[in-house]
Every structure is written in C-alpha cells, then in structure tokens.
Design brief:
Distance between the termini: 134 Å
Order of helices and strands: HHHEEEEEHEEEEEEEEEEEH
Strand content: 25-35%
Radius of gyration: 38 Å
Shape: globular
Length: 247
C-alpha cells in the first residue's frame, strides 16, 4: 500500500516535458512549413519593399520642402559688395523720384565718362552677363553696380545722386573710401573708390553736392580712377541705368 500511495513523479513529469518539447518542435516545423510555401517569400519581400519606398517618399518630401524654401525667389542673384549682401531683382525698375527729385547720375558730366563695368542683368545676353562679372580672388561674382571711368585716368567730382542723409562713411582696405546716403522710403545710394571725402555720418546733403572725388582702389585697380555706384531699393540692388533720369 505504501508503494501505491507514493507520488508517481516520473510518470507525471515525463508527459509534461514531452509536451513542451513537442510544442517547440511543432512550432519550428510549422514556421518552416510556412516559409516553404511559394507565396510567403514574395509577400515578405513586397512588404519590405513597400516600407522602403514609403520611407524614401517621406524623406524626399521633406527634402523638397527645404529646397522650395531656399529657392523662393529663383529670379534673384546675390553677391557681396563692400560690407553687405544685396539682391538683384528681375526686370526693369521705373525712374526713382523722392519728394519731387529724380535720381540723377552721381557726377557733374556723365558724357565725359564711360561705363567700364556694367550692372549684371540676369536677362541680358551671355556676353553682357560675362562682362558684368567681377573677379574676387579665385571666384567671380555678379557686379551689383556701375563703374564710371575717366578715359584720361583723371580724378573727377562725385556728387550726391539725390538729397538725403549720410548713413555710412568707411575707409575700406580694398574698395577705397565708401559713402552711403539714405534717401528715405528704402532708397539708398552707395559710392565706392573715393578719396577726399567731404561728408560725415549724419550730414544732410542736397542733390548735386560734391561729396568726394573718384579715385583708385585695390579691388579694381586695373580700372584706374573710377567710381563704383550702386542703387538699392528696400535692400535690392537695381540697375542704376534704369532708375536715373536724363542729366
């Protein structure tokens, strides 16, 4: 009787272990049988490909968004001139008039001078655009102003193109002395390659007032005596030839 009452540990544990082993084996065999079916591998491949394509599409969409933001204005070019960066808008600009004054050339007699380096016009011919490129070291940049040169390489007077307030007087190491005049309503004129400066920051000047003389500078020393003249409206460089009146 004692033998009959003893727990049958061996007989109870053996089926339990056998069931676990049987389940693991069954699962492994079932997975192998699943993979052995012809449609399973292509389905897995297609699912993986769909995930990859979706990720590429999301990434490309984000990248396109950045490019659109960076090129909001594809018709504009930028070049560093003097101490700041200016932007050239596409198309001509009407003649500029402020308080009854029309913007004029910043010299006493423009007919006695010649335009040596023109303003870079994105709509001009290839030859004209090439002529309006300026070399700075090993790089070329669009010319955002006009260079007026005396054929005899003689200094000439530089005058205020319009009445306004002097906002900058700077002696630049490569561009020569620079004067900037603010004419209000976002209009600014800049004069570079100067000597004998006659004005100071804060001075109110009238149109035609002699502010300096044209001279030489290191940046464009091949031009000899010349005046670099820029016109900017709301920070955008415009072709002086399109905004000055007859003189």
């Amino acid at each position: 009787m004692n033998n009959q009452n003893k727990p049958k540990q061996g007989s109870e544990e053996t089926p339990k272990n056998g069931l676990g082993a049987s389940s693991a084996a069954g699962s492994g065999n079932g997975f192998k049988r699943l993979l052995a079916r012809k449609w399973v591998s292509p389905a897995i491949f297609m699912a993986a490909a769909a995930i990859i394509v979706t990720l590429m599409w999301v990434y490309q969409g984000a990248d396109d968004s950045k490019q659109t933001t960076a090129s909001e204005h594809p018709d504009q070019t930028e070049a560093t001139v003097g101490e700041g960066t200016v932007t050239q808008p596409e198309g001509a600009v009407d003649e500029v008039i402020r308080e009854g004054e029309q913007l004029q050339w910043p010299v006493v007699n423009k007919d006695a001078l010649q335009i040596e380096t023109p303003f870079y016009d994105a709509n001009a011919s290839s030859d004209e655009r090439q002529a309006a490129m300026v070399q700075m070291g090993n790089t070329f940049s669009p010319h955002m102003g006009i260079d007026l040169v005396d054929p005899n390489d003689q200094p000439f007077d530089v005058v205020a193109a319009m009445s306004g307030k002097v906002s900058l007087v700077l002696n630049h190491p490569t561009n020569g002395s620079i004067i900037e005049i603010n004419h209000g309503d976002g209009l600014v004129t800049t004069y570079q390659s100067l000597s004998d400066v006659n004005v100071a920051v804060g001075d109110e000047v009238k149109q035609g007032t002699i502010i300096a003389k044209a001279a030489r500078n290191e940046q464009e020393k091949d031009l000899g005596v010349h005046l670099h003249f820029e016109v900017r409206e709301n920070g955008k460089a415009v072709n002086p030839s399109t905004v000055v009146g007859a003189q």
